[in-house]
Amino acid sequence: MTHDPTPEPATAPAPVRVLLVDDHAVVRQGLRLFLGLDPLIDVIGEAANGEEALQAAATLHPDVVIMDLMMPVMDGITATRTLKRQHPDTEVIALTSTLEEHKVNGAIEAGAISYMLKDASSDTLADAIHAAARGEVRLHPEAAKRLVRDFRGGEMRESLTPKETIVLQLLAHGYSNRDIATDQGVSEATVKTHVSRLLSKLGLDSRTQAALYALKHGIATLDGVNV
């Protein structure tokens, strides 16, 4: 008599490694407190300014950085730009108290994947962290409206294929590469190729900019986008 092999126990997903960057210790303490309630978020370090953030990121290798924008020594936009150049796989969530257009645009242009306000609920911020770890965009609704209004984007160098257009629309709706692959019945590697090609054709640098392009040109709508 043969026996079916005992199934391997499911492997629990690894927690998202998060670095908190804010010049106010009380803010960092509050973030650490409520993010610590999520077993799949691991706050691995803190920094009080952009310069400290770059040093910590080089040592700790976080998956996601929660970045304040207005800080002494080095501001969050400058730090985000440098961090994304040095650690392109680390995602940055801008977490601030302002919706000033130059801050919103500056953070996204620097490479932040999401833009949130400090009055966001703990659940909203936790969702943004998990989304960022998957490469998904989360934007405060008002920030999204301003970004779409002011977004210039690149000039399309050649036409998108029908498949690239679908991928762009799904990307704008917050789908990860895995989600897109499942939806379209293709491999994640194929999705990565589509994303890389459409970014090149549009002259864009990031998924967030691609999402804004889709919104600006009517390929996706704000009603269907995770903001």
TrEMBL record:
SMART domains: HTH_LUXR, REC. It comes from the Bacteria. GO terms for molecular function: DNA binding. Signal peptide: none annotated. The keyword Cell inner membrane does not apply. Keywords: DNA-binding, Phosphoprotein. Pfam families: GerE, Response_reg. GO terms for biological process: phosphorelay signal transduction system; regulation of DNA-templated transcription. Residues 17-133 form the Response regulatory domain. The modification 4-aspartylphosphate is found at D68. Residues 153-218 form the HTH luxR-type domain. This is LuxR family transcriptional regulator. It comes from Deinococcus soli (ex Cha et al. 2016).
